[in-house]
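Subject: Sanity check before I submit

Could someone independently write out the structure tokens for this chain? I want to compare against mine line by line before I put it in a report. The sequence has 338 residues.
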Amino acid sequence: MGIYTHALEKLRFSLPTYKHVLNGVYMKELSIVIPAYNEQKNVGLLYHKLKEILSRMTKSYEIIFVDDGSTDSTFIELENIQKKDPNVIVIKFRVNFGQTFALDAGFKAARGKVIISMDADLQNDPADIPILLTKMKEGYDVVCGWRRDRKDPLLKHIISRGAYLLRKILFKDEVHDSGCTLKAFKRECFDDLDLFGEMHRFIPALLRWQGFKIAEVAVRHHKRKYGETKYTIKRVLKGFLDMIVVKFWMRYSSRPIYLFGGFGLLMTIVGFGIGFYLSVQKILHYDSYTLSDRPLLLFSVLLVILGVQFVVSGLLADILIKAYYRKEKPYKIEKELR
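---
Independent answer below. Compare away.
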């Protein structure tokens, strides 16, 4: 009887897909999440390259394409792929909501024990996926790709270098290439993480703040062959503003009164100080000194009012926005093909 029991256990653990279904936790070992916007010539080629790599790995997997409101034939290409391969999932946004929201939708739909994100423009190489997974086996929760030899214009190199220096100053972030979409995550990384704005670049910093172990490995980077880059100066400015939000959230999310209250308290103290000065002057020079024509009196009152409003308004606004994004998804899904 013991021999049969041992044989059954061995068979059970040799079939990871069924093991995950039976345990009710994970249905796949790998989930590949790929946001795509106007990449009609790339998604088919990327799928075939992924299929070739994943078939060699003998792991259960799913490929999740998120069509971020494409205006070309990207969704038609993905729909045709999905009809032929049940391991492919296609999520279609009604309009273009941006890469961060596309990744967020893909992460929430993923059923894999390990989630891998990558771009749809063929600049990330699917052949680097095993490298990420090998590094993860060393005990890391997140492994980031590092495009050491980037095939991008000089301007993007300069902007990326500047962003890295800012992240290092603000977050003490040692990840050289946080903008590289090719990353591997353990599923639990996204249990309590909601993304918005252009915050996909700061996922490693946010996860490090939450206590996850981060590593990076060098990966290949190819020149774009088809389509146009979505990287614009507008995205750079949005990313900079999001960097400020992330810095605030990491430092003050559990104690925001330290920031808003600090500024508010400073204004209030200065306002009361000016008021006290004017009161002393009035007492010492009662007959010749009037307060009604002193702009300083109005300024002191203004500082006190602003100090109180700064604290209350700032806290309420931030808390309400965070609560809204947790309850209401800021993107709309038109279709989901499984």
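---
OP: Matches mine. For the report I'm noting this point. DSSP finds eleven helices and eight strands in the chain.
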